[in-house]
């Protein structure tokens, strides 16, 4: 558009006009046409500047609104983090290898235990290897209680961890025959309450203590 207006100016301001020693009827018309073209160009430039200023003001206002919104979300996140930190400390989560563990102190069926762990910021524990298993057993309160873990074979014969639905690789079944076998009707796994803390599968509706795990620690 600017190029077009510039060409208009060149068209309406002929060389002869600029060099005339006196004003004639023809040159007067050329001057008038040139002035009109320049006035039109000025009007266009004024409009363009006003539009740009308006757009800039709108953009600035929008950005300020976004900044305010983000600031509010940061404050909300900080508050949630403080509450979560307070809850973690109040529940006395214990740290191991970058994860935190909580030993529940209320008797719940397996499904309620799984939901409870998620409500407090974690998941019902997943045991990945013998080192983690030994640590959990060593920290388990000596209270003769069974503790649910996150292993089930709700699809009979396929023991999976509820956290990520991965198949069981490491196992710590009670040595006697039958535990962890297919077709028993025992679908949920717990630590048994003796010193060995071997795994037993049993009815999911029975109420025991539970162990939660979290990938997030303070």
Automatic annotation (TrEMBL):
Tagged with keyword Signal: yes
> InterPro entries recorded for this chain?
C-type_lectin-like (IPR001304), C-type_lectin-like/link_sf (IPR016186), C-type_lectin/snaclec_domain (IPR050111), C-type_lectin_CS (IPR018378), CTDL_fold (IPR016187)
Q: Write down the PANTHER family for this protein, in alphabetical order.
A: MANNOSE, PHOSPHOLIPASE, LECTIN RECEPTOR RELATED
Instruction: List the residue ranges forming a coiled coil, or say none.
Output: none
Whether Plastid counts among this entry's keywords is no
Endpoints of the signal sequence: 1-19
Write the protein's name.
C-type lectin domain-containing protein
- Species this protein is from: Mytilus galloprovincialis (Mediterranean mussel)
The family database entries (CDD domains) matched by this protein are listed as:
CLECT
Where would I find the C-type lectin domain in this sequence? 96-213
Q: Do you know which SUPFAM superfamilies this protein is assigned to?
A: C-type lectin-like
Keywords of the record, alphabetical order, are: Disulfide bond, Signal
The source's domain of life comes to Eukaryota
